Amino acid sequence: MPRFFIDAPLHAGALLDLPEAVVRHVQVLRLKAGDPLTFFNGMGGEFPAVLTSLEKRHAVAQLGGHDPREAETPYRITLAQGIAGGDKMDWLIEKAIELGVADIQPLATERSVIRLDGERAAKRVAHWQALAQAACEQCGRNRVPRILPIRPIATWLRDQDTVTSYAWRVLLSPRADEGFDTLPPQAPSQPGVLLFGPEGGLAPQEETLAREAGFTAIRLGGRILRTETAGMAVLAALAARWGGW
Q1: Are 81 and 182 in a shared domain?
Q2: Parallel, antiparallel, or unpaired for β 168-172 and 36-40?
Q3: Which 3 state secondary structure label does DSSP give 70?
Q4: How far is CA 167 from CA 69, 196, 213, 218, in A?
Q5: Of 15, 38, 63, which closes a domain?
Q6: Residue-wise DSSP of 25-52
Q7: Residue 22: in which H helix or E strand, if any?
Q8: Main-chain phi, psi angles of 212, to 5 degrees
Q9: CA distance 14 to 62
Q10: pLDDT of 221
Q11: Closest CA to 49 of 6, 113, 103
C-alpha cells in the first residue's frame, strides 16, 4: 500500500487535502478514487486512508483510525558521518534509515571532499531530510530521523553537552586494537553514537580528539571498507546482535 509523509497534524476521520507533491506522486502511481493508502506525520503510528477524489492539481483522502504500529529498533543510534563525496551521502542516509538509525549528524572533516557552509549547507541538509522522509515512506518507519545541521568535527567533539548526551560512543578505525566483539551482547538502554569518517577515513588528530571525548575505537577485521560500506556493515551487524530486525 502506498505510504506518504505529511508534515501536518493528522486526526482519525478527517478529510485531508493532499500537498501538491503527494498529488503528483499519487498521479504517477495511477491511483484512483477508492484506492487505499497510508499517511504518517512522524509523531508515531500511521493512518490508513482512502483516496476520495483526484483531480489534476487537487486530491482528498479520508483518514481512518490511528494505527499505533511502529518499526523502530529497541535501541537508539545516532550516525555521525564524515561528509562523503558524490552521491554517496544520499545513499548512506537512505540505507542508514532503513537500518534503523535515530538521527544522522553530518560532519565536516579534514578529508571530506565536499565543503558546505552557509546557504549551501542548509539546502543540502533540507535535501537530506527529504530523503529521510522518502526512506521512511518506503521502509515502513513512522518516525522520521532528524538530519542535524552540519558541524565541523572538532567543534562537535569538543561540545561536551552534545557528546556526553550519548551513553556509549564508538569510532570505527582501521588502526583500532579492539574488534566488533568489544560491543555489548545486549542492546544498551541508553542512546549511543557511531562515528565514521569520509573517504580516506578520519585524520589521526580527529581520531585523537574522538578518543579524548570518550569514544571507543573498533575495527572490522582485516579489510578496509569504503565509507558507504562501513557504516551499513556495522548497523546491520548491530541489528542482528541487538534484535533490530
Answers
A1: yes
A2: unpaired
A3: coil
A4: 27, 18, 12, 17
A5: 63
A6: HHHHTT--TT-EEEEE-SSSSBEEEEEE
A7: helix 20-28
A8: -65, -25
A9: 6
A10: 80
A11: 6
**DSSP strands (E only) in the chain:** 3-5, 15-17, 36-40, 47-54, 59-63, 77-82, 103-108, 146-147, 151-152, 168-172, 192-196, 216-218
C-alpha cell at 215: 569514544
Specify the CATH number for the domain of residue 37: 2.40.240.20
Nearest Cα residue to 188 out of 45, 78, 64, 61: 78
Do residue 18 and residue 121 come from a single domain?
Answer: no
Provide the pLDDT for residue 229. 92
- Residue among 64, 56, 15, 20 at smallest CA distance from 38: 64
Contact between 81 and 92 (Cβ < 8 Å) = yes
Euclidean distance between CA atoms 217 and 14, whole angstroms: 50
pLDDT per residue over 115-169, tens digit each? 888 888 999 999 999 999 999 999 999 999 999 999 999 999 999 899 999 999 9
Q: Is residue 116 part of a domain?
A: yes
Say how far apart CA 154 and CA 156 lie, in whole Å.
5
Dump pLDDT digits (tens) for 186-225. Answer: 999 999 999 999 999 999 999 999 999 999 999 888 788 8
**pTM greater than 0.90:** yes
Number of neighbours of residue 170 by Cβ within 10 angstroms: 25
pLDDT in tens, 7-39: 999 999 999 999 999 999 999 999 999 999 999
